[in-house]
Hints:
The structure holds 2 protein chains of 2 kinds.
Chain A: E1 4-5, E2 11-12, E3 21-25, H1 26-45, E4 54-58, E5 64-67, H2 70-75, H3 82-97, H4 102-121, H5 126-147, E6 149-150, H6 159-169, H7 178-192, E7 193-194, E8 199-200, E9 205-211, E10 219-221, E11 223-226, E12 238-247, E13 262-264, H8 267-290, E14 295-298, H9 304-312, E15 317-318, H10 323-333, E16 337-338, E17 350-360, E18 365-373, E19 379-385, H11 388-410, E20 413-416, H12 420-435, H13 440-461, H14 466-480, H15 497-500, E21 503-505, H16 506-524, E22 528-532
Parallel strand pairs in A: 9-19, 12-14, 12-16, 14-15
Antiparallel strand pairs in A: 1-2, 3-22, 4-5, 6-20, 7-8, 10-19, 11-18, 12-17, 17-18, 20-21
Chain B: E1 11-14, H1 15-34, E2 44-47, E3 55-58, H2 61-66, H3 73-88, H4 93-112, H5 117-138, E4 140-141, H6 148-165, H7 173-187, E5 196-202, E6 210-212, E7 215-217, E8 228-237, E9 251-253, H8 258-280, E10 286-289, H9 295-303, E11 307-309, H10 314-324, E12 328-329, E13 341-351, E14 354-362, E15 368-374, H11 377-399, E16 402-405, H12 409-424, H13 429-450, H14 455-466, E17 473-476, E18 481-484, H15 485-488, E19 491-493, H16 494-513, E20 514-519, H17 526-543, H18 545-550, H19 553-568, E21 570-574, H20 583-590, E22 596-603, H21 611-622, E23 632-639, H22 642-652, E24 672-675, H23 680-739, H24 762-767, H25 769-781, H26 785-793
Parallel strand pairs in B: 5-15, 8-10, 8-12, 10-11
Antiparallel strand pairs in B: 1-20, 2-3, 4-16, 6-15, 7-14, 8-13, 13-14, 16-19, 17-18, 21-23, 21-24, 22-23
Helix pairs in contact in B: 1-3, 1-4, 3-4, 3-16, 4-13, 4-16, 5-12, 5-13, 5-16, 6-7, 6-11, 7-11, 8-9, 12-13, 13-14, 17-23
Keywords (chain A): ATP-binding, Chaperone, Cytoplasm, Nucleotide-binding
Family (chain A): Belongs to the TCP-1 chaperonin family.
Pfam family, one (chain A): Cpn60_TCP1
Amino acid sequence: MALAFDEFGRPFVIIKEQDQKVRLRGLDAQKANIASGMAVSRILRTSLGPKGMDKMLQSPDGDVTITNDGATILEKMDVDNQIAKLLVELSRSQDYEIGDGTTGVVVLAGALLEQSQKLLERGIHPIRVAEGYETASRIAVDHLEKISQKFDFGVNNIEPLVRTCMTTLSSKIVNRCKRSLAEIAVKAVMAVADLERRDVNLDLIKVEGKVGGKLEDTELIHGILVDKEMSHPQMPKQIEDAKIAILTCPFEPPKPKTKHKVDIDTVEKFQTLRKQEQQYFDVMVQKCKDVGATLVICQWGFDDEANHLLMHRNLPAVRWVGGVELELIAIATGGRIVPRFQELTPEKLGKAGLVREKAFGTTKDRMLYVEHCANSRAVTIFIRGGNKMIIEETKRSIHDALCVARNLIRNNSIVYGGGSAEISCSVCVEAAADKHPGVEQYAIRAFADALDSVPMALAENSGLQPIETLSSVKSQQIKENNHYCGIDCNDAGTNDMREQNVFETLIGKQQQIFLATQVVKMILKIDDVISPTDY
Amino acid sequence: MVERIFKDEATEEKGERARLASLIGGMAIADLVKTTLGPKGMDKILQSTGRGHEVTVTNDGATILKSLHIDNPAAKILVDISKVQDDEVGDGTTSVVVLAGELLREAEKLLATKIHPMTIIAGFRMAAECARNALLQKAVDNKENEVMQRYSKSDLMKIAMTTLSSKILSQDKEYFAKLAVDAVMRLKGSTNLESIQIIKKPGGSLKDSFLDEGFILDKKIGVGQPKRIENAKILVANTAMDTDKVKIYGARVRVDSMAKVAEIEAAEKEKMKEKVDKIIAHGINCFVNRQLIYNFPEELFANAGILAIEHADFDGIERLALVTGGEIASTFDNPESVKLGHCKLIEEIMIGEDKLIHFSGVEMGQACTIVLRGASRHVLDEAERSLHDALCVLSQTVNDSRVLLGGGWPEMVMAKEVDELARVTPGKKSHAIEAFSRALIAIPTIIADNAGLDSAELVAQLRAEHHKEGCTAGIDVISGSIGDMAERGISEAFKVKQAVLLSATEAAEMILRVDEIITCAPHCLHLLFQGFVLCKRMSEEHEEQEQVLFLDEGKKKKLKKEAEKAQKRGVCYISRVPPGMDHVKLRQLISQYGEIQRIYLVPQNSSSIDRVNDNNKSRKRGGGSGTKAQAYSEGWVEFASKSNAKRVANLLNGEQIGGKKRSQFYYDHWNIKYLSKFKWDNLTEEIAYKKAIREQKLAIEISAAKRERDFYLKKVDQSRALSSIEERMKKKQKVQQESGGEFSVAPQKPPVCRQFPQKKPIAERERSKPQLSKDVLAGVKDLSPAYADRMEEAPWLIPSL
């Protein structure tokens, strides 16, 4: 611990409880940080690519998650180290921003750290390394822009989008039916996309899962799926041309928020109160009936009496529908959410072509389908699968695919996958390094080496000889001046990613390089770590 | 040194070790339920750790697995698929786990030969697809037949009998199959099994069980009410029949004199009477309510000659409404528009010693009741589970009427097709495909084994049979031979088999894909574990002084200092922890007397082994606020110095805790004792010991498995080498024959013909009696020839060698 001395030569304390803290400085601090960063990236390295392996994670409660989605692994990993937490953040921000490539970004960051360690050992100042990385990343991103291609798609031509989503899904456990899932994802995105503004609101796509059946039964519903049933078992199970009243007030006597008391002291009062109460339910049901609603969807519960009255007046109803679902139903059916019975008007009703209740399996599980809505902008992807873990994993995979499709609609530039983009960038950066004067040259060259580690990991995971494969592909790229040669992970027999139809989005790739560089720069700049001792 | 990136207690297992752990977990679960498979499968007794140590006897896979506490994540996956199988199709819960286990077992062998898991998965996928197609082709759909109704009903009978034959009901399976089929046929295609009510009444024998066309409600008829009603008009209601409260929020009665109270009470009574009058105005003679009916309204109903039944559960009400065609009413203002239920006769019947109400001659026959009779509660529970399985399968089959033959027939069909596929598939995948077919064949093998039959013989025969086209052979466990399944009427539902195949493959795939297991730290026990880690470090320091020498100077000093500090610490024992006290409060209370290090409190009602589990459970149940705090029975507190510990114990023992008067513990007394020569490690010793034992056991297990595998592989290699030598010899011979023309027979080794000692038939033995004694004499003199033979062949069998 650093000691400071006053003018009389007595030491004095700078940090509170100084003797109980551990401090790492200088090269040691950097090395320790780099080591822990690399440890995280080493965990994820084997999950990269279509042949990547899964990780099994057991939560503190004993629930098991199996996944190869980088963001999910890191999130559930219960990480304690600060630097490792930075990488978790990194993966998460890639997830929020792009949705895909969460594993790749961590692997790249790990490779950059590994390279920087060598540079630091040679005595190059960390700041120079960081700057060199920055320059190199700019070169790489520009190069990506150059080798990217635009491709056209329209409402009728969704094939390119499907292909790109298939690339994303091929690395997941669901790759058995990637074609159908990719189609579902693209159709869902196209249904909610605003093609003029080039924007997609993913909130409009609801992903619902139910255990049972098989993965092939997964379907896209042009409407909303609610995990609820009719409030009274004898209500009709199917309603055509439903006019839906969407309520956020309960079918119950009013409960004012302010404290109050109704005192009953005479028999008359008792009786009038009773009458009022009976009337109250009647009025509520009548109001719904008057505006012409044929289905009531309510956020709250019903009283028994109200329930029977509804049933009696032939007004099917659903209770305890969650707020998010309620909003989605409102969007889909074009209705308005009504907070008070007094405000019910015919215009505020939502319209749906068909509302039906469907039962599953041998248990009493039922779900409510709201289909053929007035505004078909809200869709639901309904996932079936053998067990809970498969469903959860499929949900994550579908989410990735949806994000990719959305990114393509925002920006229709693509680069080719299979490591081809990284190799091409690496070649370009390497060439640029030679022209660069100054110490940064080493860092830029190291950056090129780090870029190589992504295709290397891909090859390794696919059971190929990593160094051999990489060098042959690299030489092929340079010789043929073909930027689209990548690692042949699926043994398809060709190195050309254009033939294999392996695409990734340009912004996804660019973001990966940016984010990884940023985090590595941040880690390199740390030269002092102060932490409390373990005991 | 790599920095730790996980929290202290989190563990990480990688690569081979992770895979081995999950494979072993999966196989262990499969082996656990393996013996319950098939008609001759055995049952298991499950004893719960809860109050009363309840006992369940079952051979239903899902029930067994559901009640296990499992720590291995891979095993959890298998439990999960069994649960899903139960929810989706109802039957095949054991088979799905066993098949997944067998797949894992095969996969382990492949992994040992250095085949990449992804290749195995690809092979499994192809095989599963192929097997499913084979099933699809062979499935028979009898629905489109001309004489469809009758045929499909007989199909249903067959399926029900097959399902029941592996259960406790197998004695009377024909009877129960008929019962189940009748019940399901009444549902008319709906899969909602809620409308089939199963009532269990101990007494009588299983054969006394019956299906009732009508509806039975497990209630008694009130006193003074008619015991028998013909042409009943029934009102089914869900309404409060105690005092009808005013529901307006905040309403309360406030009176100033007794007279007023009486008045209001009278008004209340009047209100009740009005309600009853309204109900009577519906023109009914039977009233069934979900909620309680108080004495007063009950009396009114009795006066009106109406049968009033209270407190029927919600399912009962729903079913009753379904059966009688009435609606569940909660308001009674419009008597003309409420639909009433009808039935021909309501009467009280006796089953065993209990009186029940029986509704017969109902309009809609959708719901029905099965009354199960049996010797004991356990028998009844198991019978209910069996019947439930049968009903589930039947209701699924009604919708999807494709059927397959049973008795291992589907597995053999699939295995044959998969084998075929393996032959034409190039590359390493073919190994995995072959393994898949082996796993499929394992199921009939297990069925035969469980029945005590010679599985190897039977399965081999079956395999030969299946090479004929259109074969219908399967294992007939009852007669213990190969038989024609179509003739014996053993069928299974296609849907069940398909679900088994697909979910087992999916689960196996999922487990195989894992190459790393990261276990997060459990929420509790932080203190204890930290203590443990520290103690371990310290004891290492004590015992392995040499190792310390290698550490650099600074670290050594630090460790020494730490150990010295630990030497100074003292531990106090608290024999009683007041209710509501936890480690935080305890720390707060004691720390005012001196510096304390660690606290450990023993949670009440749990043995030390189940501690982690228990903590998890109570937390899950709790969730929100207002739950009861965990009670502790005793605890230990570690002080920074011994003298301080001693002083505090002397000072506090027997004294009132005191503090603020409002405090929960104000009146409680300390019960604290200083433990001389007691160290914190003594506390954690047990855990450390257990962990070490577990580690060792696992290592032994793994090494044993490895040794077995290596030996097997060695033998396989040997045989391959031998056969190739033979091949070469033959080739050489051929070449010689062609070229030289000289006919010289190369010295060939005679094929090894091993003889196994066998008992001779009795008749023969009678004749050769004098010879036998000679044999024995020879054996005394020297090693008997058979024994020597065995030694030569398998020296590892004899431990002393």
